[in-house]
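thought: user wants a sequence for this fold. calling inverse folding tool.
action: design(structure=
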């Protein structure tokens, strides 16, 4: 197994672990009756599984061996919604670091099909980190104010919470 294939297999654990952790977060948020935040984290959990699926598809197409990792039981509770989203941000940063590492290995090996596949992940991670940072900042602004927290929760339910982030770099360019 080449270093690149090994690294992609190792990275599968990052995506599955993130999926599992986000599902646990979604449950905790639901228990706190923060339905909007909860459904957002549930969607994120599904997205992480789909990221793993993309990598698996690449491995299969490249005729490489897929080794599914074992996943640790995730944390079950958080001291606050702010604490929870701080962790989301840290987790996304760790995933980005792992993707960047794989990218470097793929580049060094001259594996164009891998860098092409990874380009999608680089863009995705930029978006995911921007989103996580945005939610974190919003929660900092809300502070201890329950009304502000509930408003944010409602915006997640309405699908408007991330409208400005969702625009992404391309969206911003269109507005200039
Ligand atoms: Fe991911
Ligand atoms: Fe992610």
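)
observation: tool returned 176 residues.
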């Amino acid at each position: 197994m080449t270093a690149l294939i090994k690294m992609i297999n190792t990275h599968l654990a990052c995506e599955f672990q993130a999926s599992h952790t986000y599902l646990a977060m979604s449950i905790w948020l639901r228990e706190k009756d923060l339905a909007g935040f909860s459904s957002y984290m549930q969607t994120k959990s599904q997205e992480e599984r789909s990221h793993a699926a993309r990598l698996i598809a690449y491995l299969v197409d490249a005729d490489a061996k897929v080794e599914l990792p074992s996943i640790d039981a995730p944390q079950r509770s958080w001291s606050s919604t702010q604490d929870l989203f701080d962790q989301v941000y840290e987790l996304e940063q760790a995933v980005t670091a792992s993707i960047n590492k794989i990218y470097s290995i793929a580049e060094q090996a001259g594996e164009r099909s891998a860098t092409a596949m990874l380009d999608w992940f680089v863009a995705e991670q930029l978006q995911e980190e921007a989103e996580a940072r945005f939610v974190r900042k919003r929660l900092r602004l809300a502070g201890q104010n329950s009304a502000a927290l509930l408003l944010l929760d409602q915006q997640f339910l309405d699908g408007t919470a991330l409208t400005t982030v969702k625009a992404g770099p391309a969206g911003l360019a269109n507005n200039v």
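thought: summarizing for user.
answer: Here is the designed sequence. The pocket of fe (ii) ion (ligand 1) is lined by residues 15, 18, 48, 51, 95 (CB under 6 Å).
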